[in-house]
Amino acid sequence: MTTYVEDLLFKNQDYSKNTLAIGDYDGCTFTQCNFSNCDLFRYVFTDCEFVECNLSNVSVRKASFNDVSFKACKMIGLNFSQLSAFLMRMNFKKCNLQMSRFDTLKLKQTSFIDCELQQASFVDCDLKYSDFEDSNLEGAVFTNSNLEGANFFNAYNFNIDPVRNKMKGAKFSSDNLEGLLRNFQLKIS
What we know:
Elements (H helix, E strand, L loop, with lengths): L2 E4 L2 E3 L11 E4 L2 E3 L12 E3 L2 E3 L12 E8 L17 E5 L18 E2 L7 E3 L17 E3 L7 E2 L18 E2 L5 H4 L8
Parallel strand pairs: 1-3, 2-4, 3-5, 4-6, 5-7, 6-7, 7-8, 8-9, 10-11, 12-13
Organism: Formosa sediminum
Pfam families: Pentapeptide_4
Protein name: Pentapeptide repeat-containing protein
């Protein structure tokens, strides 16, 4: 039997020691909570907000994030590819998502604003109209992904091959185009 929780604030909780009850969380806010190394198998979060939480190395297999926002969260090493794709919608602002995997997901219009995405993986991903503004994409992998209309304005340290991704209408800063040309081994001065 799962718990149903609605419109509650959870603050300064350490779920790495005392597990959050398995259930559906609707309209809840989690502030400064520690979920590191937790297993969120089949948890459902709808219209929830995570603020300044540590979700590093959390197992999200079959979990649902429906209209969930993450702000200033530490989320290192998450495999978002294991989420339940049904009604999935997430947004990230000022989050540390280093070494996270988003492979094969449909993430249309997802915001990754001012995020740390070093070594993140976006393989076979639908990122149409997503927003990577001001994000660090050093070592991030984009392969066979739909980046049409995506915003990379002021994103930095990226290396995106326009031959291996759909990129029609993607937006970049004019002073930061080197990351699109690196694979062509051109000398630009």
